Amino acid sequence: MRSCLMSNCQRRFFRLLVSACAGILAVLYASCATAGDPPRIDYSDEKSILYEIETASKTLNTDPLEGLVRSRALLDNTNGFPEVQNLFNQASERSRAEFDIAVAAGRWSDALVLFRSLKALGIAPLEWSEALLLENRLLAWKNEGNLTLAHLDEPVQSTPEDEAPPSVIVSNMIKGTVTVWVDKGLRIENGVGYADRVIGSGFFIDHRGYLITNYHVIESEVNPEYEGYSRLFIKTGDDPDARIPARVIGWDPVLDIALLKTEIKPQAVFSLGTSEDLKIGNRIYAIGSPAGLEQTLTSGIVSAQKRRLLSLGNVLQIDAPINHGNSGGPIVDEAGRVQAVVFAGIEPYEGLNFAIPVEFLRIILPALYAGGKVTHPWTGSFGKTAQLAGSTAAMGVSVVYTLTNGPLSVAGMPAGTVVTSVNGVRVRTLEELQGVLIRERPGTIIKIAGIPPELLDESRFDSFTETEWYIRLSQRPELPGKKIFTTDVESRALLPVFGLDVERVGATKKYLVRSVVRGSIADESGFSEQDVVEIREVLFDDENKAVSIQLYTKRRKSGYLDAFIGLAASLDSPSYF
Questions:
Q1: Rounded distance, CA 104 to CA 137, Å?
Q2: pLDDT grade, residue 461 (50/70/90)?
Q3: How far apart are the C-alpha atoms of 103 and 122, rounded to whole Å?
Q4: Mean pLDDT across the stretch 124-151?
């Protein structure tokens, strides 16, 4: 690694130049991103290091944790720069001061983010612990009267049986469910107006009138892109003709869950169980309003587990009858404890329905109560579960792609690294990694351990000492693929979105395929190494959340004959983390 090549006088001059021209440099970087390889933090180049020091310094007052993680990356990737250690010390002190401010103000969730970040770096205040912070947050929830959150960490274990629940339990459960009704005015078709409405289900979780439903049921209430009329009501079984006003408190488009509030006192409130003990074949029950028929109870079994239908996790497959209007209703066990939330069914196939495990609801419930749109963390990466050579044993998560200037890029982690643990928690698969990350808030600093590509030898995997990086989680975009296309150059965006790893050939938009991600769109379309492709057009379909690309190509498997091929892919994927 390159060390000090400038004199102190030259360094001071360059820092002044960087400070005065930061905006110009940013514009130059942006313009370069469309022509060649994207700009990266080059920790071997002294000018890049000084520019990064200046960038990190500017964040200390406005975003101390950003300055902290950038200064730590500088500390880990450079030598011979006394300014770096000083910067890290300043960022540490500023972050600890921010923690003290959050504690004094009783902002316990913010204090937890700061404490966990400082703990990951080994500089957490000794007089505090995570358990003590959680205890204070719990006390605050109790003082607010929020018993739902106060008992969130006390789930009653499910003991599913094949016997139907007693009639008294059924009667009580039904009283805690409602029909969610969204009036969207009139829909005009062929000059004729029809009543436009969305019908779903919901269930109370709080005696103060809070209830759960699906985000897609109430989307028109909170989606800024919706410009029509929208009015939200609920209907109870006692008086199905009465429309009771309700409002949306918090919503999560990724996990398809929303928290609503009404001003009535519910007759019954559901307890949140845990679906971790559910097994295939266990009896479950669904309550909802199929076709608007309030308080309908159906039964079935868990047909399958770990169906990968959500971007951030697996869902349950169930065979309990589900129809239009069931969305947002509870899936319960024989004791009436919520095990999942209905969210989808496949119409042509009877008995093929899906539900969101209650564990996801438990994770995001504090954020839902806090109000607004729930955000999730990500590292700006795309990856796959890595396996040992000649074996099906999972060894970690291979980082296939990192977003330019994203969290992993800032930390200096190269593509090709195999991630093996997060904050000391071992992860062997992409699902396990996402299961750890989803429990963190955006903005938190975490410690990731793994094996960089230059040291990776799958045949001797257990003999390596892991390298550590400190990552500050950023906010996951709703459509990661679109973020990649608008931030990175097109040729690099082909890798995470379509599975094509290419390199430029000449000065045109022609590229040579270096590799193809197994199981990707490109792989399924017959692309292979040494194919020649030329990007002709990229089109975004915002309505369907997809992107299509038109390629002129000569493929080896087709005898290098000229061809025009169109590829389409979702702008979201379970492989982003």
A1: 13
A2: low
A3: 19
A4: 94
Among the CATH numbers 2.60.40.1080, 2.40.10.120, 1.20.1600.10, 3.40.50.360, which is that of 156-372? 2.40.10.120
Q: What does the alpha-carbon distance between residue 459 and residue 90 come to, in Å, rounded to a whole number? A: 43
Interior angle at CA 468, CA 465 and CA 471, nearest 5: 160
Please say if 327 is a catalytic residue: yes
Catalytic residue among 57, 95, 230, 256: 256
Pairing of strands 445-451, 418-422: antiparallel
Q: How many CB atoms lie within 10 A of CB 384?
A: 16
- How confident is the model over 143-199, as pLDDT tens digits? 999 999 998 887 665 555 545 566 677 777 889 999 999 999 888 888 888 888 999
* Rounded Cα distance, 41 and 407, in Å: 12
DSSP bridge partners of 564: 552
The answer to whether residue 216 is catalytic is: yes
Query: 391 exposed, middle or buried (CB, 10 Å; 0-12, 13-18, 19+)?
Result: exposed
DSSP state of 529: T
Cα dihedral 361, 364, 368, 374 sign: negative
Assigned fold of 480-570: Pdz3 Domain (2.30.42)
Q: What is the dihedral of CA 294, 296, 301, 305, to 10 degrees?
A: 0
In this prediction, residue 460 carries a pLDDT of 57
Listed by start position, the domains of the chain span 8-143, 156-372, 377-475, 480-570
In whole angstroms, give the CA distance from residue 27 to residue 93: 32
| Residue 256 among the catalytic residues | yes
Look at residues 394, 275, 436, 293 and name the one whose alpha carbon lies nearest to residue 341.
275
Residues whose CB falls within 8 Å of the CB of residue 374, separated by 6 or more in sequence, listed in order: 250, 251, 252, 254, 255, 364, 367, 368
pLDDT tens digits along 443-453: 999 999 999 88
Task: Indicate the pairing of strand 156-157 with strand 273-274.
Answer: parallel
Question: In the predicted model, what is the mean pLDDT of residues 535-562?
Answer: 89
Q: Do domains 156-372 and 377-475 have the same CATH topology?
A: no
d(CA 217, CA 328): 8
CATH architecture of 377-475: Roll (2.30)
Question: Half-sphere exposure (CA, 13 Å, Cβ side) for 539?
Answer: 12
Helix (H, G, I), strand (E, B) or coil at 331: strand
Asked if 273 and 265 touch (Cβ cutoff 8 Å), the reply is no
- List 71, 216, 421, 520, catalytic entry: 216
Give per-residue pLDDT as tens, 264-278: 999 999 999 887 778
- With beta carbons less than 8 A apart as the criterion, state whether 528 and 560 touch: no
Report the alpha-carbon distance of residue 477 to residue 545 in Å, rounded.
12
Asked whether the beta carbons of 328 and 304 are under 8 A apart, the reply is no
Select which of 57, 289, 327, 421 is catalytic: 327
Q: What value does the mean pLDDT take over residues 518-531?
A: 91
Given the structure tokens 């009329």, which residue do they identify? Answer: 229
